[in-house]
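residues and backbone:
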Amino acid sequence: MTDTPRALRRILGPGEQELSCEECFELLDSYVDLEAAGVDAGQAMPGMWPHLLGCPACADEHDALLELVRDDERSR
């Protein structure tokens, strides 16, 4: 089953400026750290969230890294 809204966003693209994949991978650690700390990472790093919505590879990397960070925090 597909996530239709996400699929449509990928087709239509973001309504705002987004980062490139290269920029995304350079900043992803910091973005995930902000998210894990409860900070509005999208506001702190404009362009990241629109990119993650439209790029399955970067979104997968983000999701895996966020899960890893949260698992690490729970194990402390």
User: Anything to note?
Assistant: Residues 56-74 form the longest helix (19 residues).
